[in-house]
Structure formats: C-alpha cells, structure tokens
C-alpha cells in the first residue's frame, strides 16, 4: 500500500460528529488532555472556558470575566491549572473543574499590543514554550494588525 492509499483508508473510517453546545458564539482553541481524556476549548466571545469528557458526555463550563478569552492549555504536572489568554494577558488560573470554581487567577504577562487587539489562539511546543497570535478585536480583520509571539515564564514575551 502507498502512503496515499493508507491516508485515504484512515479517512474512510473516520467519523465526524458535531458537539452541540447551546450559546457558543465563537468556539476555538481546542486542546486534548490525554491525562483527563478531555477536550478543553474556549468561547472567545462568551468569554467561557469548556471541558468536554467524551466518555461521559459531560460538559463543564465557566465564564472568565468580560474580556475575550482566546485559548486554554493545561499546565503539565499541575491538576486543574491552566494558562489562558484573556484580551492581551497571558493568565495562569486554577480552575477546579469538580466544584466549577476559579480558585485563583494570576496575570503572568501582558502583550505589547494596541487595546484594539486580542489574543486569538495559542499552542505549546515540546519544551513548554507558548506560541500565540493576536488579531484585531472587531468584526473587521485588518491586514498586518496582529502579531505572533513566543513566551517562556522565565524569558517573558518575545
């Protein structure tokens, strides 16, 4: 079998399912957490954090405040701790997903961007460095208005 035929056979077996959650305005930033077997994601406009566990079909959600939230990434080795992007802030939160309470919230850094921008999405690499992008926070997307950053807790924003 060729690589192409293997690829095709994988997708013939694939099943696409819609996760139906009422009220989501702009769902984004999915992150699969292997340890909890859960999908974490955000509603940017909500602004709401979500945890979905497919095995139980349980959905837990919590509003973060009033600023748009662009991503959620679990912190390795720290149960219920997450890095999130709120407006232009990189924020560490302790979200107890059992009691559904935000126990603590600490702004780690703020991006040097115009107040008309927001964090759009982010991912971590294998070394724990956070890569994130920004964009305008309005309905009109402007060419060149956003930026791309890397962040390490000890080195800050670059």
TrEMBL record:
Cofactor: Zn(2+)
GO biological process terms held by the UniProt record: L-ascorbic acid biosynthetic process
Residues the entry annotates as binding substrate: 118, 120
Keywords: Metal-binding, Zinc
SMP-30/Gluconolactonase/LRE-like region domain ranges (all copies): 26-154
Single GO molecular function: gluconolactonase activity
SUPFAM superfamilies: Calcium-dependent phosphotriesterase
Name this protein carries in UniProt: Regucalcin
Gene assigned in the entry: rgn_1
